[in-house]
Structures are given as structure tokens and as C-alpha cells.
User: Fold this.
Amino acid sequence: MSRAVIRPAALSGTLAAPPSKSAAHRALICAALADGKSRVYPLAGSADMAATAQCLCAMGAQIAREGDAAFVEGDRCAAGSPVTLDCAESGSTLRFLLPVAAAYGLRATFVGHGRLPERPLGALADQMKAHGVSFSAGAMPFTIGGRLSPGRYELPGDVSSQFVTGLLFALPLLDGESEIVLTSPLQSVGYVEMTLRALQESGVAVTPTENGWRVPGNQRFRAFDRTVEGDWSNAAFWLCAAAIGGTVRITGLSNDSAQGDRAVYEILERFGADIKRDAHAVCCEAAPLRAQRIDAGQIPDLVPVLAVTAAFAVGDTEIYNAARLRIKESDRLASTAALLRALGGSAEEYPDRLVVHGGGLRGGDAQGANDHRIVMAAAVAALGCREKVCVSDAHAVNKSYPNFFDDLKKLGGRCNVDMG
Ligand SMILES: O=C(O)C1=C[C@@H](OP(=O)(O)O)[C@@H](O)[C@H](O)C1
Ligand SMILES: C=C(OP(=O)(O)O)C(=O)O
Assistant:
């Protein structure tokens, strides 16, 4: 059993943003699909990155790590080869590589852990079945067979944008033109924009249509040397911690990033935090916070830490359009509400929204729910609490941010961590 004890503290100092998990997934995949050798730098040693790298190697690519850099030699196993792809707990790894493995025509067995086997895949799997791919079972572990064929792919936009991203990687490899048609408005738009930019930098053409994208077939990915941008989603923990009580400067965050979680800047500004940016850094300083209405549709990963921030505001914050939070590493509407209540706060959970009553938190024992964003949100909450916070499942931070507790200490936080 892993756990962390975090004591109240006002953070201060400057920190480099960790490399973006979403950008790194995309860079590794594009590199593995490319002809030749690419360099991807810097790369976090996170569990999700390791899962994607291992799967790409199992599919035929070669990846050598040198410090924070990965050198990727693109290659693929012959069609029909049996491979096992262990996606660990990473939804991105599963949903991005499933169509790619099918485009290669591999007999790929997909394995997943934690909550991953329960997370939705049906809409993508149904479209793949309609385009020549067989599935041995309806849930993980399953083995796919056959080869993906080009054509018209219809997907809902409100389950997971990762379905679209996976197809955008795979369809350019097919021997004819395809179209992705959205049957409902797209949520998590920024993540698809990140995919489109990654494809463009790899020399792959995709044309937007009225409600989707047209993807020519027979395309080749170009090798590259790519710097992975800083992660707004994980930097958000420090910016919110500062808004609650401290002064933090985060470097390496791009102002014109496609990351939807860049919105944390405007949201904290609306809360009343003193937040500024220049060409090199974002700086946030505590100020009295007031409740907000927040649309979670484009920023699902920010919700746990924004809910914690709201607990320190005056008034009631409503976080709406958040039904998809229930299908992440934990049911994040339930686990976020439980976190706030465990620390002496008050929150109401509805099917697709959360209402957080402001007024501060006391501290206490909280469940990390085996969810990195809940554990990190608990640590941020602790900084503003009156008493210490003890959170279970501290190891979960390894999923996206293995240096989280070290970075907390660098900013003056006080914690004892037992990774179990
Ligand atoms: O494409 C990506 O890198 C991601 C997309 C989002 O998922 P959904 O599109 O399912 O919301 C996000 O929650 C996840 O952490 C990363
Ligand atoms: C939901 C997340 O990731 P994934 O979907 O890739 O598991 C996350 O990082 O919060």
C-alpha cells in the first residue's frame, strides 16, 4: 500500500514544466511510423510513456533511451505476426495503437490493467469491425485479426477524442482514402488538434471537412527531431497550488500550444488569482478566489485540481458538462467529491456535474483511487489545509508525473512518501 503525507505549506519558486504526456505519446507514435531515425526529447519516465514505447517496440520499432531522449527507428512486424501489446493503464496507448496495429494487419493481443479494461472502446471497435478487423472478445484481453480497410468511419465526438486520434494515425497508412465523420460535437478538441499538428510535422496530410476529416491513403511519415513541449495539464497542479496560497513560476509552457488544458490560465484568472505570463514562464500568485461556472467538456483532466481550487474560493462552483469524467482512471466525479468531503469540504455530485462549496478544507485521510490526478489534487489540497493530508495510492503519480513529489519538495512542499 503506497501513501503520501503532505503538510500545509505555501509553495514558492520556479519549476520547469514536465514534458507533455499527450505530446510525447504522439511524437513516439509518429516516429515509430516514420521511415528512418527520429529523436524525441525530453521524455518523462512515466508508466504511460513506457507502455506506449514497449508496445511500439513489440510492433517492430526500435527505441533506445539516452537520458531524457528517445531515439526511435521506425519499423513494423510483417502482417499476420502475433504480438502482445500491454497498454498498462493508459487509455491513450490502447486507443491510439489499436487502429495502428490493425492497419499493419498484426494479430495483436491487447492487455490492460487497473480500470483500463472497463473504459469504453465500443464505438471504435464497431467501426474497425465494419472495416475488416475481427475481435476475439468484447473486452480486454482480446486479439485482433485481419487488416483495416479504407473507407468512411463514423464516431461519436463525446465519448473519447482518443478514438479520433487513433484513426488519424492509422488511416494514412491504408491503401486508399478514408473519411472520419463525427456523429456528435467533439469534446476534448485540443487533443485532436495536437494530433493534427503532430501529423503535419511528420509530413502527413489530413483535410478538415464540415464534420470530420478526409485522410488520403498511401502516406509516409517523415522522421524528425522533436522537442516535447511542457505539460499544461500537470503544470496546472502547481498553478492551482499557487492560486490557493503561494507564488509559483512555471517555465516551458507554450502560449500557442494546442493543449486544451492551457485554459487553466484563463480559469485561474477568472477565479481571481494573480496570474501573468511572459515569453518564458507563467507566474501565479495567491489572491482571494471567488466561485466560477466551469465547462469541463474540453478540459477533462483539469477537473480534480480545479475542484480543489474551488474548495478554497468564496461561493459555490459548478463544474458542468463533465459526464466523461466517470470513465477515466477512476470515476473522477465520484473520487473528486469523495476527496473534498474526506478533507472536510462539501461537494455534490450529479450524473454530469459537480458542485463544490467553497470555504476551505481541514485535512485528513483521503483515497487516491489509484488515479494520478486524484493523488496530485489531494497533495494540492493539503497545501491549503489546516491539518496534514494522508492520501493512499501515492504510486499512481507514476502514470504521468513520476517526479511529482520531488517537484513538490523543490517548491518548498513538505511530504513523506512511501511508494509501497
Ligand atoms: O489524447 C490525449 O492525449 C488525451 C485525451 C483525453 O481523453 P478523452 O479524449 O477521452 O477525453 C485526456 O483525458 C487524456 O488524458 C489524454
Ligand atoms: C485520462 C488520462 O489518460 P489516459 O486516457 O491516456 O489513460 C489522464 O492522463 O488523466
